[in-house]
Amino acid sequence: MENFSELIKIRRSARKFTEQELTQEEVVTLLKAALMSPTSKRTNSWQFIAVDDKDTLQKLSHCKEHSASFIADAVLAIVVTADPLASDVWIEDASIASIMIQLQAEDLGLGSCWIQIRERFAASGVPSDEYVRDLLDIPLQLQVLSVIAIGHKAVERKPFNEEHLLWEKIHINKYGGK
């Protein structure tokens, strides 16, 4: 990657993956990015479950009523969890780790997509975090924030078009900027 500005421009959510496996080095690099992500007061409240078993990925793809079926086609899913007792900003810490994983995936030329789990529901009506917790034997003290689906991109998407930047969402010195 040339620079960070290019990286964030080309990082787009990928929901279609090839069957090509990741190398062990790629997986380790992704997990290192997760473990190096910043946390409040360096509490490291997050924990990660790397899933590469095809049967488990298939089951994980049912964690939400909509928008999670593509997990079954990913070669890796990283489940991002955190302990609310370790940090009052566990949601922020786990969110930062989630995007760090996605940026690292893009830097490796891989595709990724964030699947929101917290406050979502499976088709059965079961809360998505409960579904994932039961499937992966996650202890009760850990909250499931997201699943990051990862794989080699089956479709390349165009980089973000800077002409679509919403500059009206930026305010200088105070809201409204006047």
Mean pLDDT: 95
* Main sheet summary: 4 strands, antiparallel
Tally of strands = 4
Number of helices: 5
Give the topology string: H per helix, E per strand.
Answer: HHEHEHEHE
- Report the uncertain regions: none
The rough form would be described as globular
Q: What portion of the residues fall into strands of 2 or more residues?
A: 15-25%
What order do the strands of the largest sheet run in, or round the barrel if closed?
A: 1-2-4-3
Given helix and strand content, the structural type is alpha+beta
Tell me which oligomeric state these chains represent. single chain
Radius of gyration: 17 Å
Q: Give the termini separation.
A: 39 Å
Q: Roughly what percent helix?
A: 25-40%
Give a description of the structure.
By secondary structure, the protein is an alpha+beta fold. It contains five helices and four strands, in the order ααβαβαβαβ. It has helices at 4-10, 24-35, 54-60, 90-107, 128-136, and strands spanning 46-51, 76-82, 111-116, 143-151. Strands 1-2-4-3 form a four-stranded antiparallel β-sheet, sandwiched between helices. Helix 2 (24-35) packs antiparallel against helix 4. The chain is globular. The N and C termini lie far apart (39 Å).
Short description:
By secondary structure, this protein is an alpha+beta fold.
Layout of strands and helices, then pairs:
Elements: H1 4-10, H2 24-35, E1 46-51, H3 54-60, E2 76-82, H4 90-107, E3 111-116, H5 128-136, E4 143-151
Features:
178 residues, alpha+beta, 4 strands, four-stranded antiparallel beta sheet, single chain, 30% helix
